[in-house]
Amino acid sequence: MKIRLENVVKEFQTFRAVHGVSLDIESGELVALLGPSGSGKTTILRMVAGLEYADGGAIYFGEENATDIPVRERGVGFVFQHYALFPHMTVGENIAFGMKVSKVKRTSAEIAARVTELLDLVQLGGLKDRFPGQISGGQRQRVALARALAVDPRVLLLDEPFGALDANVRRDLRRWLRKIHDELGITTLFVTHDQEEALDLADRVVILNKGKIVQEGTPEAVCRNPADAFVMNFLGDANRLDADIRGGKAYVDDIAFEADGVADGSGQILFRPADVTWREDGQGISAKIVRVIDRPDSRRVLAMTGSGQAVEFDTAPEFPHRKGEAGFIDIRRPRVYASA
Asked: Which residues of the chain register pLDDT less than 70?
């Protein structure tokens, strides 16, 4: 089922949450809405679900205008961050609930068979008679997904589905969710503020800021070619150095970087901690090591440039240099942007 948003607007009493968003989600595609708190991503998801109504624009499911269709008639499955399971019902009863109240009538035997099928799909076959309070958070989220799938939705919507879980469980569940999606092929839209989660799971990432789409594309495209400084900063650690841009060059402490197409004036150079090499002498921006932080498989080095700008970079665990040592930072793949 293809989903199309055309110039969708959502206003609340004191602010506009979504500013004319247009987006196509292809049938069978898994798309992540990624952005900071207040960027409009959950509001967009809720409008697609029918839990909020758009104040402008239109939402299409295939060729059907679904903008004003009630939530129960949209054929969507919704998975919330905090599971929203019925605590007084068993796992099996939670999964069966949507089928029992659906307009599509099924016999008790059909419902029981579907519950068994879904429990096997989410790898919880032996837990049908347990209550939500008797299983782990990761298992409860699998039950929530099974319940959403029980009504054979045309579209699957997930709102921060792993946000309440610890890091290791989140990592395992997102790999599992990707596998389930590949098996079922349901058009899926999910919301997250976790960059790693979006890049790990999605076919396409839509990055939002202040109610607008600022970039969309494959994980490779948004990582390798960030559209602006906001995207570069949001998609992971980024160093930022103030620069003076003139004549197609960006100057930091008299070191020049290519800045083709960037207007003359004040600007910024952004680069990842992994794109820095420390040199004892030679080329680069002069700097002094302020601190060395040990991590299991690397070291994070905090340095200060000669002009007093902070830089962080990653090295191998064997990095021999210490606090107070002077040298140079050599930057690979810098990106130059004019100051906003």
From this structure: 83, 164
